[in-house]
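Board notes (copied after class):
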Amino acid sequence: MAYLFSLFTLLTTPHGHLYFEAGAAIEGLLNLQPPIAHVEVVEVDGEIEDRDVTSLHSGDIFVVRPGESIPVDGVILDGLSEVNESMLTGESVPVVKAVGAEVFGATLNQSGMLRVKATGVGRNTALARIIRMVEDAQGSKAAVQRLADKISSVFVPVVVAIALLTWLTHWFISGDLASILVSAVAVLAIACPCALGLATPTAIMVGTGQGARAGILFRNANALEQVQRLQVLVLDRTGTITEGKPSVSDVLPEAAVADAELLRVALSLEQHSEHPLWQALVQHAREAVEVSAFQAVIGRGG
């Protein structure tokens, strides 16, 4: 009603009061899956074509180049690489993936070319299940929302009745259509319990959405509501709650080797490596010595 009246006023009265903001809504989106997949063409051996990820079927074979995100869940047919699965597991150190290993959509292929057979597409991927869980959490009701709904179920009809009474009263008193509409809309926009009926589910939607972006998933709204009462947080032994990247804490050379010399040698060997452990070492070192004939050996970092 506020929107329609504002539109009427905007078109007929240049300097009239507008109430567009009373009908505004907020919606968030969660989209991590890459849009394109490099799919092998069955009819032409060795031919690769780019297809929309939504068109993939279980059994399709696709390739993932270094630095690209894996489009859907699958099993590796050929190749050896390291895959960053932090969006799925929270572990920042990449996992070595060889033939026969499972890979998951939206995880990042870091170092090698992979040839993968799709096993989970569409709503059957791990990412799709995460999105559904977040959507279910956003749509669930916390205890405070159920209380708000009970109050609103009584409050809203009362406010609507008062707005109608205001309409009728002004009709008999003034007969001015613009004045009648302004008074009725004012009652609805100001007295209607927006905070009870809208703010609570909006807060749940925003809270679960922001948590998902930070890698924190809530199964339902009650879990989000109870977070304020947490006093002790217990983590598993893998240490996945980290800054997301390793760093050098100590340099411990042999007695006859200086720290700087050890760092120069290590840096010379690893300055071109993509492995996160060696990237941390490169960042820590102050000097570098260029080397040639560099080769990264997958699965041997440590």
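Comment from the instructor: The first helix runs from residue 2 to 12. The mean pLDDT is 78.
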